[in-house]
Specification:
- The N and C termini lie far apart (about 65 Å).
- A four-stranded antiparallel sheet has the order 1-4-5-6, covered by helices on one side. It has a three-stranded parallel sheet with strand order 8-7-9. Strands 2-3 form a two-stranded antiparallel sheet.
- It has six helices and nine strands; from the N terminus they run αααβαββββββαβαβ.
- Residues about 10-15 have low confidence and may be disordered.
- Strand 4 and strand 5 (about 115-120) form a beta hairpin.
- By secondary structure, it is of the alpha/beta class.
Length: about 200
C-alpha cells in the first residue's frame, strides 16, 4: 500500500512538472511572438507611446501584442496559447487576444523564465495582468546591496531606462502597489541587501 501511494504521488508530481514546463514553453513562445511584433509591427500608436515615455523597447523589455499574433502559427501553437489564456475562442468569430493592440511587459520567475505578461493600454495606461505570477523586470541579483522598489511596472521601467542603476543595485516592481508572495521571497534571498528605497512618484 505504501509503495502504491508513493507511485501515485510520484506520478502526480511528474504530471505537474510536465504541465508546468509546457506552460513555461508556451509563455516563452508568446514572448518571442510579442517581441517580434514590437520590432516588426507597423503601429505608430505603440511607438508613440514608447516615445512619449522616453522608452526604448529593448532597454525595458517592452513588447507589443498584435491582435493577429496567432495568425499563421501551427494549430499546436494556437492551442498552447489558448491553454494559458493568451487567446480565447469566441464562438464562430475567431479568437480574442489578451491585451490586443497594447504594450506588454514580461514577468519572470526565479529561474528567469517568462511566466506572466502585463498589458498596458496605450490610450490610458490601464494595466491588465494575465495572472499573478512572476516579477518585473526579473528576480534581483543575489549580489544586490541596494534595492529600489517601484509601485508598478511603468515606474520600474523608467528606472531601467534611466540607466542610473549602479553595480549592486536592482529595481523591483510591485503588483500595482501590492507586495505579493514572490516579491517577499525575492527580497528574502538578498542576503547582502543593505538599503531598500521605495520610489515615490512626484
Amino acid at each position: 500500500l505504501s509503495l502504491l501511494r508513493y507511485k501515485k504521488q510520484t506520478t502526480k508530481k511528474t504530471i505537474m512538472e510536465t504541465n508546468n514546463n509546457q506552460q513555461i514553453q508556451t509563455m516563452e513562445t508568446a514572448y518571442k511572438l510579442f517581441k517580434k511584433s514590437i520590432q516588426n509591427y507597423n503601429n505608430t500608436n505603440a511607438h508613440s507611446w514608447l516615445n512619449q515615455h522616453g522608452f526604448k523597447a529593448l532597454a525595458i523589455d517592452a513588447l507589443f501584442i498584435s491582435h493577429r499574433v496567432h495568425h499563421g502559427e501551427p494549430i499546436e501553437v494556437k492551442q498552447a496559447l489558448e491553454s494559458v489564456g493568451i487567446i480565447k475562442v469566441i464562438g464562430n468569430k475567431g479568437h480574442q487576444v489578451f491585451g490586443a493592440k497594447n504594450i506588454a511587459f514580461p514577468l519572470r520567475n526565479e529561474t528567469d523564465h517568462v511566466v506572466n505578461f502585463c498589458s498596458v493600454n496605450i490610450k490610458n495606461n490601464q494595466t491588465t495582468y494575465l495572472n499573478r505570477e512572476g516579477v518585473y523586470p526579473h528576480y534581483p541579483s543575489l549580489e544586490t546591496t541596494k534595492l529600489f522598489i517601484a509601485k508598478n511596472i511603468i515606474e520600474a521601467a523608467t528606472i531601467l531606462q534611466s540607466k542610473l542603476l549602479k553595480e549592486g543595485q536592482s529595481v523591483l516592481a510591485l503588483y500595482e502597489g501590492r507586495l505579493l508572495i514572490q516579491h517577499e521571497e525575492a527580497i528574502k534571498k538578498l542576503k547582502q541587501l543593505k538599503e531598500v528605497v521605495f520610489i515615490q512618484k512626484k
